Amino acid sequence: MHVLDWIVVGLYVATVVGLGWWANRLQTDTEAYFVGNRGVRWWAAGLSIIATSFSAASVLGMPGYAYADDMWYLQFQIGDILAAGIVAALFIPFFHKIKELTTAYEYLEVRFDTKTRQLGSALFIFATLLRGGALLYGASLLFSEIVPTNVFPGLPGVEEAVIIFGVIAITYTVVGGISAVIWTDVIQFGLIVLGVIASIIVVITSTPGGTSATFETAASLDKLQVLHADEPFAFKGIVTAIFGYGLLALSLYGTNQQPVQRYMTVENPREAQKALLLGVGTGAISVALSLLMGVFLFVFYDFNPGLLAEGIGSDQVMPQFIENQVPPVITGGLVAAVFAAAMSSLDSALNSTAAAITVDFYTQFKEDVAEQQRLFFAKIVVITAGALGIGVGIYASRTGELLIDIILDFLGWVGGGMLGLFVLGMLTRRANGLGAFIGAIRSRWSSGGTRRPANSRTRRCSGSTSTGGGRSERLPGAWMTTVNEPEWGTDGGPNRNSRG
User: Fold this and answer.
1) Structurally, how many domains does the chain consist of?
2) CB distance 262 to 88 below 8 Å
3) For residue 151, pLDDT beyond 90
4) What is the dihedral angle through the alpha carbons of 288, 72, 138, 253, rounded to the nearest 10 degrees?
5) Residue 492 lies in a domain
6) What is the band of 53 on the pLDDT scale with cuts at 50, 70, 90?
């Protein structure tokens, strides 16, 4: 990269670390550390919700979906928005009825019993540690393709990036708490969106004919198609988008500690509802921009085939474009956007894990512990969870595919079981704690995740929070951890339409 690019990246890192130290003065107890004294601006909480689910692999990988196919992934946002509406109407009022609720799983104790609460919390902690490490690896894999590093002699560039990302995220999260996490998420999400918009401008201005020619060519190649109503029950069909992905999103927005913690950082349920709807709406716009970027890249390289390396995969097109076609300063901004996406996913995982362990376990077993000791314990958990995340990321870089399958199966288990528990508690009065606990355990045998068909291959670049593409029958969406290859043609590259 150019020296100006390094200056841009350096300014970004200095800003997020500085925000952490600024927020440190507010961290007087665990109420401040985990929920910001319930005084966070609702719009900041909303942007943090979507920033958390927008990983580095989303920034660089999502354009690859549209490049290889069309904009079909955008229809999944219908399910996302419908799920957010249900959570805003049903789940958020329940959470805010419980005085001083910090974790989602405190509701399970109020409705059922302690063991059900701790089961839900334990499943979340384990899934989050796995996912955080996998996202860290995915971000590092993509980052190392654009910015080769040689900081730690003897380590591959991917593992160096895992360590760098992890240490920076741990630093500002451990000192600044949820306030640092949310406000850095706001900056990071803004940087991500600006990076995508800047990329779109660069690719359009570099395409012969400019904006009008780009859109006309994309339309003539059917690259702008969103709805697939001809096969509504297929993987890319509208019914799957609404019900299949919608149920996944309902589980995530309604029972996962990371968004629920944001709901509790604001003053009242009305503000929490606005935060969620803002986050999901902004996320849909961001997904549309990322997919358009992929479409425009297809048109650009269709006009300039000699600029694309032979046999390159669709998920590598965006990194190659940044490396070879984007001018200095903008390149630095895009690299900083990748950095931002990695940080916004990891910082939330660290703080939410610390909240779950401290509130759902440590405080339960040591009720008389002093507040300052609880705060110190929470910070130790952040550091430990971060170290474990780095370890998982390095492990993923060496084993890859097996870890991806374990994570996806476990997320399928956690998502289905947790959604069942919360809905059971909110919609019925007859269920008791023992029945709910046994039901959650037994759900493992019926919700362990769907399997990929034999003709689908999973790449070793885990980390996407918005997955899909190709032939995989796993539901794509927020919080997921794999990037799947598109359907491959007989020439060894992704199938592409021809301008004829």
Assistant:
1) 1
2) no
3) no
4) 70
5) no
6) confident
pLDDT above 80 (res 270): yes
Q: Which of 168, 169, 164, 176 is nearest to 19 (CA)?
A: 176
Q: Which of 80, 79, 134, 19 is nearest to 283 (CA)?
A: 80
Phi, psi of 494 (to 5 degrees): -65, 145
Tokens of 26: 């507010």
Tokens, residue 313: 């995969």
User: Has residue 335 been placed in a domain?
Assistant: yes
Find where tokens 């029972």 sit.
255
Residue 160 half-sphere exposure toward CB, CA atoms < 13 A: 14
Which residues touch 23 (CB under 8 Å, ≥6 apart)?
175, 176, 177, 179, 180, 183
Amino acid at 134: A
* Pairwise CA distance, residues 405 & 451, whole Å: 9
For 476, phi and psi rounded to 5 degrees?
-80, 160
The enclosing domain of 203 has a CATH number of 1.20.1730.10
Answer whether residue 466 is part of any domain: no
Question: Does residue 434 fall inside a structural domain?
Answer: yes
Per-residue pLDDT band for 352 (boundaries 50, 70, 90) equals very high
**Looking at the DSSP assignment, which residues form a beta bridge with residue 488?**
494
Asked if 422 and 254 count as a contact pair (C-beta separation under 8 A), the reply is: yes
pLDDT (tens digit per residue) in 384-433: 999 998 888 888 777 755 444 555 555 666 666 778 788 888 887 777 77
Domain with 406, as residue range(s), is 3-445
Q: What is the pTM assigned to this prediction?
A: 0.82
In order, the DSSP letters of 169-230 are: HHHHHHHHHHHHHHHHHHHHHHHHHHHHHHHHHHHHHTSTTHHHHHHHHHHHTTTT----TT
Closest by Cα among 42, 18, 29 to 102: 29
Rg, C-alpha atoms of the chain: 22
